[in-house]
Amino acid sequence: MTATAPFTVQCRGIYATALTDLLVADERFAVGWPSGPIARRFDVDFETAPPDASIVPDDDRLGVGVLGDEAAVGAVVDRLRVATDTLTWVDSTPRGAVFDGVVTDTLGSGALVDLGDDEAFLPYGATAAHVETDDRVRVQIDRPVGPWSDARPEVTTQFSIRGALASLVREESTATSGPDLLDVLSVEIPDGWRVSWDREADEAEFAVLEAALEPLLDRAEDLDRALAEADDRTRTGQVFPGESTTWVQFGRASRFELDSRRRAVTPTMPGHHRIKAGAEQASAAVDFVEALAPDFEGSFPFDVVTRQFGPTVGDRVRIAHGKPDGRTISLGRGEVTDRDPDGTVRVEREMSPGGTYDGLGIERQAGDVAVTKLTEGKWWYPTVYRGNDGQKRGTYVNICTPVEVFPDEVRYVDLHVDVVKHADGTVERVDDDELDAAVEAGHVPEALAAKARDVASAVENAL
């Protein structure tokens, strides 16, 4: 079912206030079913109709997922592109999608399932059947995850059609034992399905509840049909498409833009979203500071934040190398050997022998040390490789989205194009073609690519 504008949107998570401010300022959207704090902060009439799209937080606090009607999701995602380093990806394992898969391994708490182009995790508690390696299973995506996450999407063998106020659950028996809310609604639930009401349904009027169930009935019929047509279960792949699901990752510049949005609504300290994204335990501290001293001046307090939550000298941090296609690759962990209160950390890693250094074209040798200087907010960072004799073997300057120095990791998204300085002093710019390919594939917006090229040129000239 395709919704008509204005689209009703439900919003949750650490970005909810800023994103609500974005949405209510746009006539394409009406915000519905706000949380208590959101309802108190905005003097608007919130929608009571079922949402066409839901904005949900991701476990890493780096961005949000947008789920629901395809047209609504597309419009919301477009609105959420608040800065150059806002990146988006359509999920190939959207919530509610059904796949025929094969169990590839069994672990202590669940099984790994090959879905064809993706892999998922089936908790043992999410299936009534005993599963073993090579078993064929039909599963539904219950909990999608952002492409930058280390986790796999979670699946279940219990099928449902989820909505904001209610869900339809597919079961062999739907017998009830006593009065049910359905007894007073003029909605007929098809055989083989039952209704599971959300808590927010207690506050909704009967007409709203009926409106919430109607699109679920259509989708339940579509799912029944899809399952019947793929009854032989001989192929591995998607059986039912589920909800439209797109992930939005906010970079550092995006987080500070969202700070400005939030500040227009309620007291917001510099770096509000940046701090909350870096450490879960920081959320309460940020809320306390904003309640205690609501008038803020100055810039993001890097020194205070890192002293309180890390990293400090002696800590070990991961270099989380985000890729434009959404994945995150770890470049390994290193020790913080220096921390500048103004925003720079120096990380040293001992390199393992074998292979070559990209761009430099030299072999990695035993005893090599990589010294990386990462500065909060910069669009680039240098790594100097030295041999066990202390001699410089080359310098690699990575061009990326603005660096964020989180307590346990330093994070950014690599923008492909880089600049290297060889041991003999020769300077070379590399991988422009990879950046062009990423733009062509839709992974890097042209404005972001142009910024990357400008930064690379400036670094090249400086070296």
Brief digest:
By secondary structure, the protein is an alpha+beta fold. The protein has helices at residues 16-24, 36-41, 70-79, 206-229, 252-263, 272-278, 282-292, 302-309, 432-440, 446-462; strands at residues 7-11, 29-31, 53-57, 63-68, 86-90, 98-106, 110-114, 119-123, 136-143, 154-156, 160-162, 166-170, 193-197, 237-240, 244-250, 316-322, 328-340, 344-350, 369-375, 380-386, 392-400, 404-405, 409-422, 427-430. The chain has 10 helices and 24 strands.
The overall number of domains is 3
Averaged pLDDT, please? Answer: 93
User: Uncertain runs with pLDDT below 50, 5 residues or more?
Assistant: none
The rounded distance between the terminal residues' Cα atoms is 56 Å
Descriptive report:
The protein has 3 domains: 1-91 and 244-300, no CATH class; 98-242, Beta Barrel (OB fold (Dihydrolipoamide Acetyltransferase, E2P)); 316-462, FomD barrel-like fold, CATH 2.40.380. It has a 7-stranded mixed barrel with strand order 16-17-18-19-20-21-23. The protein is globular, with a radius of gyration of 25 Å. 24% of the residues lie in helices and 32% in strands. The N and C termini lie far apart (56 Å). It has 463 residues and is an alpha+beta fold.
